Amino acid sequence: MGDHFDMTMDEVLPLRDVVFNTLRKAILTGELKPGERLMEIHLANRLGVSRTPIREAIRKLELEGLVIMIPRRGAEVAQITEKSLKDVLEVRRALDALCAELACDRITAEEEEMLGKACDEFARATKTKDATVIAKADVAFHDIIVQATGNQRLIQLINNLSEQMYRYRFEYIKDENQHDSLIEEHRIIYESIVGRDKEKAAKTARLHIDNQEKSIIRQIRLEQNQAAAGKK
Amino acid sequence: MGDHFDMTMDEVLPLRDVVFNTLRKAILTGELKPGERLMEIHLANRLGVSRTPIREAIRKLELEGLVIMIPRRGAEVAQITEKSLKDVLEVRRALDALCAELACDRITAEEEEMLGKACDEFARATKTKDATVIAKADVAFHDIIVQATGNQRLIQLINNLSEQMYRYRFEYIKDENQHDSLIEEHRIIYESIVGRDKEKAAKTARLHIDNQEKSIIRQIRLEQNQAAAGKK
DNA sequence: CAATCATTTCTTGTATACAAAGTACAATCT
DNA sequence: AGATTGTACTTTGTATACAAGAAATGATTG
Hints:
- Two copies of one chain form a homodimer.
- By secondary structure, chain A is mainly α.
- Chain A has eleven helices and three strands.
- In chain A, helix 2 (about 15-30) crosses helix 4 (about 50-65), helix 3 packs across helix 4 (about 50-65) and helix 6 (about 110-130) runs antiparallel to helix 7 (about 130-150).
- Chain A is globular.
- The interface of A and B includes residues 16 and 60 of A.
- Chain A binds a DNA duplex through helix 3 and helix 4.
């Protein structure tokens, strides 16, 4: 019999993984701010564990690029600069296009149906004007495409890269002017994949990232200006 | 004034990083074989350190995909299957093409010159018939292109993906029949980048990976057959 | 003799202890 | 007063101790 209680799932997870997930979430939601130091004893007390799992979690965050290590000084939350985000998006543009192409070759009938539903679902979600609901529907749509590639390494990389811009996802999602074009782009991607038109699917996927980039960069500049003003 | 003594630099590296590099190298060179268990006390004794740095190094290897964790059983060296290698190469094909395109836009005059030299150097290296020399020259050539993108994230990803096939690099390098086409491809890539022909640079980069894939897959099948025969 | 269960041993998971490096602040000297 | 050194304190780096879960071994029973 399978497990009935998801709660108990956490208990079998090693503490280092619990800590890893907790810290990652805290960083991605902005609870832990860029530049903030991650002090081991402090975190250990806060999470009710010893330093060991904290340290092991930090090693993984380090490799994931969410924290940077300064020798003999410890870890701090990585700064997100406009440059680092452009770098991430440049890679994502290429990988999202790859996903779209691969999906044309490999998507199953079931996945096609799911993708169609996710497409409609996204359109419906925009009507709610609830950023959380819209973001979820957006992720669901793209997840189906990524999964359809069947390439585990690609799936892992996309997930990691998506993380890096998690904090800014809401900003472009909230921009209601863009909703119609987002819906339209999703629809084109869906139809291209079903129609096995790799060229069009990849092109639209790239365009989709371009639009996100514009929103996100705008948002970052805004924040930087606010920070600069606050300093004065 | 800058540091005069480079010797002391290594000594300040935390043990976890020394262990991480040591284990990674051991895995990539095949000294630690796929499926082999990484037992902490054993490794600690062997490397003359305690379990703590070993464990932290393993966490990073885990995220890098070089080892897999089995809960309550520890780490073992990840198996490289034909599928996992195809997955890696599929991503690399896209990213190498991206590198070539970006290099067209961003390469500096100095880098162009270095690339030309690296191109000649590779041709010369093939004459030596020494796989190590050829492999080094090959890496040097591609490194210049990757660096020319100026995209830190991309540089990091390519390095990680290259690692995954490090073990098989010698196989396609040793294949002397391919030397001429490798030289030719390098030359085309170089000229395309200098001539700012993104399309051609990207296309040739993809072709370059295709050729490597063929060699490597052939090698893997060979090994698998040998393993199967040995079992019988 | 086979199967099962207890026991022992090995290994990981977690906590803690100790050493060394770094930091901040205050006292001292020029 | 300003700079410098010394000292206390904080924090990381490393080692070790202890607990708990798996695996292997052996004994016991049908």
